[in-house]
Amino acid sequence: MENYEIIQTIGEGSFGQVSKIRRKADGKLLVWKEIKYGAMNEREKQQLVAEVNILRELRHPNIVRYYDRLIDKVNSRIYIVMEFCEGGDMSGVIKKCKRDRDFLPEEIIWKIFMQIVLALHECHKRKDGKILHRDLKPANIFLDSSMNVKLGDFGLSRMMGQESEFAKTHVGTPYYMSPEQITDSHYNEKSDIWSLGCLLYEFASLSRPFEAPNAGALAVKIKSGKVEKLPTRYSEELQRVVNWMLNMDPNMRPSVEDLLNLSQVSLRIREKK
Ligand SMILES: CNC(=O)c1c(C)[nH]c(/C=C2\C(=O)Nc3ccc(Cl)cc32)c1C
Question: Which of 137, 138, 187, 220 can pair with 90 through a Cys bridge, CB separation 3.0 to 4.6 Å?
């Protein structure tokens, strides 16, 4: 801990406080996420260690970079040191757009979407078992200083997924939960695609596809499969891709590969190179 200086707390990440820190050796700005593991049982602790090890392996320009982990045994806390993204998270961007009544230009939406698809591709393509995000939402999508999009909080979600006791005391309203997760809480990569569909919907309409005051009413809405159309300012193509990902049948949803081959996405991947 002595290698870092805490600057300020910048957010309540899922399951832990996120603070902006400075590495003393070179003054580099980073963040750390504090996770209190005192209340975890043995299995959950194993899971946490396994998932931090997953984080360490993920190296991709669109995934928040893991730098270090510090264990404070005295206070049963683990600190995960990660990349600082000075643009904050997409939930902040969406709130600002809403406040200013300013829709995101379609061009920007596709650029953001393309980078998240690339990040998911990196995780889904892994040899030894896919890493499923399980918690794709605007608050887990970060922007760095050059507007590059970074998927954050990766991997920790298995440990913190709905099924774990530890998470039960921490999880918010699961707005992006897929229909199959509600019925048989069966989670696979097509559930990540459902959440990605909810994300893309929210970037365009600045509101969630399914809103409800509590988890019960939310489940009814998600199971109804009814979704408002996007604002008419956006193309048919954007509407079609959202509808494709929000298909009630997981098998009818696109794979990450299908999304990479979309003209709107592949075009921008080539532009990036
Ligand atoms: C208002 N929000 C901010 O100012 C903000 C900024 C500038 N950065 C963040 C958050 C992160 C950040 O900058 N890097 C991160 C890596 C992992 C996680 Cl879970 C969160 C972050 C936040 C919440």
Answer: 138
